[in-house]
Amino acid sequence: GSRLWRLAYRFGGKQKLLALGSYPLISLAEAREARDTAKRLLLRGIDPALERKLQKASAEDTFRSIAEDYVDKLKKEGRADRTITKVKWLLDFAYPAFGDKCVREIDPVTILAALRSVEDRGRYESARRLRSTIGSVFRYAIATARADLDPTVALRGALVGPTVTPRAAVTDPMALGGLLRAINAFDGQPTTRAALKLMALLFPRPGELRAAGWDEFDFESSVWSIPEGRMKMRRPHRVPLSRQAVGVLTSLRRISGGGSLLFPSVRSGLRPISDNTLNAALRRMGYGKEEATAHGFRATASTLLNECGKWHPDAIERQLAHVENNDVRRAYARAEHWEERVKM
């Protein structure tokens, strides 16, 4: 059989054997060097066999493997498919640079080089989101005892700040009246017309509405309950339904009530309409992207409701499902302001 160099030692009151390598692949001098390294560990109270296992496990803890574990965790938490797809898309920018590298060996300089390569293509927002995603992977690695620090912390302020372009919104009452009349006269898909009406009446995020299911609506109580999986802040959200909204939903139910979705895709009744459907309808009505967007109905509601002075700002924020950063205001926001929102 093969001949092996071994070191016999005692640790924790037990006799153990540590394999140092096979002869002649490992020379006598190399075996003695490995023996001396093991003895130095023993003098420090460290089991050389356990240390070897830890080093091997560390070498297997590549950024890619931990990132894949992190994505699996997001799936188990019920994150939206769209969110998972975005995270995986961003991680694909990082893998060529350090995907197969042990996380403990990845430094800020290595990460910055990968981020700069994204910036060089003019994708400043993508670079910023990539840094955030890489940081999330490292924090997950720290939480699972596979890394000691997050090197992205040192990169704050290193990237080009993205230019923030507010989503176009109609904030003049007269102009809003014109938009609502245009929606009412829209001659496209009746489900699209209904969706635009509900955006104006309920002002949810477009993704929250377009993927809505009929089982989320309680018509007896006039409440729409959006599950946390579709909410941006990962919290369930209740929306009071006005009589106008109930009227739109009642008419819509005659069209799509036979399925599970309010707004099924024309191509596949099992999937909702796409992100672009509502914006495309606005363009068809003659509203340019600098004039109105589906998401802009939220800014319209926030602006006009705050300006009229009839409603408490916290009630408006709760209706918009905004989460306060301030701890005190967040505590107050836990109140639903339900009665006021029903009137609003």
From TrEMBL:
Q: List residues of the Tyr recombinase domain.
A: 169-344
GO biological process: one example = DNA integration
Kindly list any coiled-coil regions of this protein: none
Which Pfam family, giving just one, matches this sequence?
Answer: Phage_integrase
InterPro entries membership: CB, DNA_brk_join_enz, Integrase-like_cat_sf, Integrase_catalytic, Integrase_DNA-bd_sf, Integrase_DNA_bind_dom, Integrase_recombinase_N, Phage_int_M
Q: Which residues form the signal peptide?
A: none
Q: Which UniProt keywords apply?
A: DNA integration, DNA recombination, DNA-binding
PANTHER family, per this entry? PROPHAGE INTEGRASE, PROPHAGE INTEGRASE INTS-RELATED
Q: What would be an example GO MF term here?
A: DNA binding
**Domain Core-binding (CB), which positions?**
61-142
Identify its protein family. Answer: Belongs to the 'phage' integrase family.
What name does UniProt use for this protein? Answer: IntS
Q: Which gene encodes it?
A: intS
